[in-house]
Amino acid sequence: MATSVDVLIIGAGLSGLQAALDVHDAGHSFTIIEARDRVGGKTYSVSRPDGKGLQEMGAAWTNDTNQSMYWSYCQKFGLTPVVQNIKGTVACEDTDGKCHHFNYGGLPNFAEAEVRNMIDIRDLIEATARDSETFRQPRRNELDQQTLEQWIIQAGAGPRAVQTVRLWTHGMLGQDPSDVSALAFLELARGGLGIANLRHDGKDGAQYLRLEEGTQAVAQGMAKLLPSGSIKLNCAANAVTAHDQGTKYTTRLVDGRTITSRRVIVSIPGPAYKNITFSPPLPPSRLIYTTAVRYGCYVKYICLFKTPFWRRSGACGLAQSFKGPLSHCRDTSVDSQSNYALTCFLVSRPGRQWYAKSSNEREAAILEQVSSLFGLAESAVRDEFIGSMMSPWMEDQWAGWGCPFAMAPPGIMGQRDDGQLITEPFGGMYFVGTELTNEWRGYMEGALRSGKRGAAQLLQDLRSESAKL
């Protein structure tokens, strides 16, 4: 391992790999250290136990239009897109456990006044997220003083509209709208080109495409573009110490080894900053952010089946529940591989209660709910069931003990100008990751854009430093 480099990058997820590629292209030496035994961060594509293809433990979806950076890598590496199935009906379970179906692209079969109110709140979020004044002072700070739930109720959201927004935050964050800042949610919606686009599984939507080879294949392909030996796996940072007014850094690894560098890029999730001691301490604004942002409960439980039985009754595999424990599920099959699966999301309070059960109890609860959602006898679903796979993030310290990305509660982001926390370095230390972007926050595309932005800042500072010498 090189003990002295121009740039040390902590984390070999998409943002760290993108930063490394740009630093390398600019002719600077670098090392990436990664605590895990693999690259990819929260892209983690795992083979089914029966060998019939892969399923995604982490990030799963992209598209070929407005997520241009990620898609360009898919093309570069010759990866095979799988179009998300939206042909058929969506299953909807109410709080009382009663289920009905409606066509994809339509709305649940609720009372007319409830549906109208749901549409009004959706349109309000859409319009507010697209209004640039939302993110300027003083409106910015006003919105950050409220939870998302408080804001929509003040705007006239009735019980059904609140339930619907809760379903959104469950699916996107694993949190309730009473947990997150209204401003933070509106920034998320803005970056994904609106709440409707973030929720859309069709063309241009956030859930339009999956990859037959798995989303982690992009990270693996990026790693192969870097010099041999430049990525050090199973190397966790323990401490980062600045010297000479932030022009030199010593990073100590958990095993006691050290690396010196002129600059450091930190490419890990906000809650995982707790694994590293920074000296001097991070500035108050960033320390408050990394201490306050949090994950909800968010678990993927992937049910593997012999056939896509839900399609035989005209269902597309998308389901949503206001009751739980399953909040929603999607068809994550790859038909060409006979890889048939429903990915179920267990989130927030119902997810925590489910997570505390034994493995047999978890399985029974999911299969019972799947049978109810798709109108089949539980015995018929069990006959189709092969086994399950479950995401590891709740137990992963390097992810910060959660998934998909951390969100700010009220009072954390509003006093800063739009994008200030995202772009602000600390001496010669730069911060990147899918949380730290105004474009596609929480998505693979956002991670790549953040990595490129951080590398550009660093390279500009190195050029300025050289010009002064």
From TrEMBL:
Q: Which GO terms describe its molecular function?
A: monoamine oxidase activity
> What top-tier enzyme class does this entry carry?
oxidoreductase
**InterPro entries from the xrefs?**
Amino_oxidase, FAD/NAD-bd_sf, Flavin_amine_oxidase, Flavin_MAO
Could you tell me the keywords of this UniProt record?
FAD, Flavoprotein, Oxidoreductase
Positions contributing to FAD binding:
S15, E34, A35, E435
Alphabetical list of SUPFAM superfamilies matching this protein? FAD-linked reductases, C-terminal domain, FAD/NAD(P)-binding domain
Its needed co-factors are: FAD
Give TM segment ranges. Answer: none
**EC assignment:** 1.4.3.-
> Which parts of the sequence belong to the Amine oxidase domain?
14-459
Write out the residues that bind substrate: F345
Gene3D superfamilies (alphabetical): 3.90.660.10, FAD/NAD(P)-binding domain (3.50.50.60), Guanine Nucleotide Dissociation Inhibitor, domain 1 (1.10.405.10)
The reaction(s) this protein catalyses: a secondary aliphatic amine + O2 + H2O = a primary amine + an aldehyde + H2O2
Family assignment? Belongs to the flavin monoamine oxidase family.
Q: What is this protein called?
A: Amine oxidase
| Organism of derivation | Neoarthrinium moseri
